């Protein structure tokens, strides 16, 4: 799961500053690395580095990022190592020069890599499927054999790309001297939103992963890019759109609404905030039905993404709501930490309990989801250490039992706390007195109410059904071998050895 942005101004040259601000707003989508590429007078200017946006860019870097258009990326690693070599955007020289940034994960990476080498005669330099996606696009564009291109050529290349590529992908790109472009996979698994702004300096366009990046910078939301659709914006401020694939079903990732997206975002015309309110309502209804004999004194959210659901849940139950856990805002989100040891350490550092909100009370802790159980177990221990009589636990999402192959770091089912465990066994593992999960049908209802036109969501991490239809046991084993915590640690160790030698 990454954050992408593309901006084009028709006149002024401070694009990099806007991209920097947009990436800062999208920082929750990736904290491993950040990068910006701009274009000025036919040349690219690039800066990318490991770490947060604020650490990757200094004033001297921003001054060098010249141009009236550019793209940016914040990286969340799902495969390989946390290497700066895999920081985006990527760049290829031929044809024309193309800069490119991608959010998602391809499911036919091996086949594509082989075809690119044997048939397209293109070299892949990293383990990133984003570089593969870029080279597929570049190869299809090169096949047209034109000295100068237009929007129709870009649409043609993207149409051919859809025929070759499978998986989840939202992408933005830039061709110097021409403009920027963006497209979304035929199932619309990953989000991409178009906005515009008319100023005295001319028309400004922006593409971003979430609407909040647009609205925070004063852009008017035009619309979500549809599944299989592409948009091209040229240097004169002309925007062209075309449907480049009709083979998929509209199946956005439901975990965006559970955890990843900011609550003030709107994705596919669905308010993330309202979706989480409804999650709290449904969970309260289930608790009333199944825990009628339990006394709950206080509802406490596990910050930050569960706050909205927890507040609504408390209101519906008629129970006191309290911010009993205080978060150190300077600690990164533990779910996207690359290794289990690092996650465990971060949980201890990022949260502390206010004892008076726990002491001698029956406490209901509410989290957005339970994946590995690391955070949940430590927080239950924290609550007991603060004097809670009983500790109940509620998850606004169903049990995570299956790998996510579309760009979320849920690769190995063996690392999931709910793998081969029922609710009672998970409850025992995390040390709670009682545990309750949201039902999947209720979660789907909570999100679908925002846009009834969407009939299907990617819920693969909950039900094991993969919307691209090409995921089998062999693929799942391959991706587990590549993306498990052990594999990442091995890759990082190998990189350290390479640097030392």
Structure overview:
- The chain is an alpha+beta fold and 501 residues long.
- It has 2 domains: 3-248, 4-Layer Sandwich (Glutamine Phosphoribosylpyrophosphate, subunit 1, domain 1), CATH 3.60.20.10; 272-454, Rossmann fold (3-Layer(aba) Sandwich), CATH 3.40.50.2020.
- Helices cover 34% and strands 24% of the residues.
- The protein is built from 17 helices and 22 strands.
- It has a 7-stranded antiparallel beta sheet. A 6-stranded antiparallel beta sheet has the order 5-6-7-8-12-13.
- The relative contact order is 0.11.
Summarize the structure.
With 501 residues, the chain is α+β, with helices and mostly antiparallel strands.
* Distance N to C terminus: 32 Å
Please count the beta strands (DSSP E, at least 2 residues each).
Answer: 22
CATH overall fold name of the largest domain: Glutamine Phosphoribosylpyrophosphate, subunit 1, domain 1
Our count of domains comes out at 2
What share of residues is helical?
25-40%
What is the tally of helical segments? Answer: 17
User: Strand count, sense and closure of the main sheet?
Assistant: 7 strands, antiparallel
Low-confidence stretches: 493-501
pLDDT averaged residue by residue: 91
Structural class: alpha+beta
CATH architectural category of the largest domain:
4-Layer Sandwich
CATH superfamily of the largest domain: Aminohydrolase, N-terminal nucleophile (Ntn) domain
Using the alpha-carbon principal axes, give the shape: globular
Fraction of residues in β-strands: 15-25%
Cross-sheet strand order for the largest sheet:
3-2-4-1-10-9-11
- CATH top level class name of the largest domain: Alpha Beta
What Rg do the Cα atoms give?
23 Å
Oligomer: single chain
């Amino acid at each position: 799961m990454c954050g992408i942005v593309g901006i084009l101004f028709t006149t002024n040259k401070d694009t990099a500053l806007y991209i920097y601000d947009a990436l800062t707003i999208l920082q929750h989508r990736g904290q491993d690395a950040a990068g910006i590429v701009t274009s000025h007078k036919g040349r690219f200017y690039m800066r990318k580095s490991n770490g947060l946006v604020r650490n990757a860019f200094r004033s001297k870097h921003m001054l060098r990022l010249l141009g009236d258009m550019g793209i940016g990326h914040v990286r969340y690693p799902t495969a390989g190592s946390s290497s700066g070599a895999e920081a985006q955007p990527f760049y290829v020289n031929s044809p024309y020069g193309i800069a490119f940034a991608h959010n998602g994960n391809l499911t036919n990476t091996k086949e594509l890599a082989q075809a690119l080498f044997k048939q397209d005669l293109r070299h892949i330099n990293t383990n990133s499927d984003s570089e593969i996606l870029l080279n597929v696009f570049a190869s299809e564009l090169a096949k047209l054999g034109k000295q100068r291109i237009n929007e129709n050529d870009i649409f043609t290349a993207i149409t051919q790309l859809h025929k070759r590529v499978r998986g989840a992908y939202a992408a933005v790109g830039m061709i110097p001297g021409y403009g920027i472009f963006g497209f979304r996979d035929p199932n619309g698994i990953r989000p991409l939103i178009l906005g515009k702004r008319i100023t005295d300096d001319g028309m400004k366009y922006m593409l971003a992963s979430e609407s909040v990046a647009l609205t925070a910078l004063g852009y008017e939301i035009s619309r979500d890019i549809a599944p299989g659709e592409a948009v091209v914006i040229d240097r004169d401020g002309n925007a062209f759109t075309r449907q480049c694939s009709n083979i998929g079903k509209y199946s956005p990732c439901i975990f965006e609404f559970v955890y990843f997206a900011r609550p003030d975002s709107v994705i596919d015309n669905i308010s993330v905030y309202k979706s989480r309110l409804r999650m709290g309502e449904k969970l309260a209804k289930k608790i009333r039905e199944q825990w009628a004999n339990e006394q709950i004194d206080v509802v406490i959210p596990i910050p930050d993404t569960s706050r909205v659901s927890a507040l609504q849940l408390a209101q519906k139950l008629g129970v006191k709501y309290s911010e009993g856990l205080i978060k150190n805002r300077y600690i990164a989100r533990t779910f996207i930490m690359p290794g289990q040891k690092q996650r465990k350490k971060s949980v201890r550092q990022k949260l502390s309990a206010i004892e008076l909100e726990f002491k001698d009370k029956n406490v209901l802790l509410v989290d957005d989801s339970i994946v590995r159980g690391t955070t949940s177990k430590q927080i239950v221990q924290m609550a007991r250490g603060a004097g809670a009589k009983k500790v109940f636990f509620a998850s606004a999402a169903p049990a995570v039992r299956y790998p996510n192959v579309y760009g979320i770091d849920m690769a190995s089912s063996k690392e999931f706390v709910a793998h081969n465990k029922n609710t009672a066994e998970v409850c025992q593992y995390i040390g709670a007195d009682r545990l309750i999960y949201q039902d999947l049908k209720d979660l789907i209802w909570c999100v679908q109410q925002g846009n009834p036109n969407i009939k299907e969501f990617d819920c693969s991490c909950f039900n094991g059904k993969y919307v691209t239809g090409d995921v089998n046991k062999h693929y799942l084993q391959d991706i587990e071998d590549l993306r498990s915590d052990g594999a990442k640690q091995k890759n990082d160790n190998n990189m350290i050895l390479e640097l030392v030698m």
